[in-house]
């Protein structure tokens, strides 16, 4: 089965910073990748699907890129509401279970 | 708008069966896939499995021997049963809709989630 590896596990940043989170698949998954934001006690929120398509209602400061085995989620200018956990997920059952990366905790510096 | 609400016992004894229900309001479960995902304390998200409203299922290999997901279109609900639970099954359990679409190629992702329900396995 595919393994999904996110880096970094924790990221400390300030409001206004540009940040990038990386997700690597152990084998090529094309663009079958989604990104989610998760805050404690709340429902996870989809941000990006198909590697780079922005979910409706998500601010344009969020963007996704990549294909094959390496993917990135970029937040162009951090806002206070963005401090949360972020997860990537492989989205094709052809490649095996719909597994998530281990997550990245984005913290206030 | 469509909303998902998980419900069920918050405490389950070891070796017993964990049973949860996901109630869908504002829309029908028909024509969609519905999934269960969990998050153990301090850990990441783990996919458990999904069901198509008509009954087709797909489970995580690591849980397949203990998991049953079912759908009741008359009640507009999706259910999860996890047998022979241990402390390792303690987690927040989420219900989510697995959605497909087409935009320069097919895509799939979890577009709607419930807020989750904490289940603790303890005697």
What does this structure look like?
The complex is a heterodimer of chains A (109) and B (123). Chain A is mainly beta and 109 residues long. Chain A is built from no helices and ten strands. Chain A has a six-stranded mixed sheet, with no helix packed on it. Chain A has a four-stranded antiparallel sheet with strand order 1-3-8-7, with no helix packed on it. The N and C termini of chain A lie far apart (36 Å). Chain B contains no helices and eleven strands. In chain B, strand 5 and strand 6 form a beta hairpin. The mean pLDDT of chain B is 96. Helix content of chain B is 0%, strand content 56%. Chain B is globular and about 50 Å long. In chain B, strands 2, 4, 5, 6, 9, 10 and 11 form a seven-stranded mixed sheet that branches. In chain B, strands 1-3-8-7 form a four-stranded antiparallel sheet, with no helix packed on it. With 123 residues, chain B is an all-beta fold. Classes of the chains: A mainly beta (109), B mainly beta (123). At the A-B interface, strand 4 and strand 5 of A face strand 5, strand 9 and strand 10 of B.
Summarize the structure.
The complex is a heterodimer of chains A (109) and B (123). Chain A is an all-beta fold and 109 residues long.
Q: What's the arrangement of secondary structure elements?
A:
The complex is a heterodimer of chains A (109) and B (123).
Chain A: E1 4-7, E2 10-13, E3 19-25, E4 33-38, E5 45-49, E6 53-54, E7 62-67, E8 70-75, E9 85-90, E10 104-108
Parallel strand pairs in A: 2-10
Antiparallel strand pairs in A: 1-3, 3-8, 4-5, 4-9, 5-6, 7-8, 9-10
Chain B: E1 3-7, E2 11-12, E3 18-25, E4 33-39, E5 46-52, E6 57-59, E7 67-72, E8 77-82, E9 91-102, E10 106-113, E11 117-121
Parallel strand pairs in B: 2-11
Antiparallel strand pairs in B: 1-3, 3-8, 4-5, 4-9, 5-6, 7-8, 9-10, 9-11
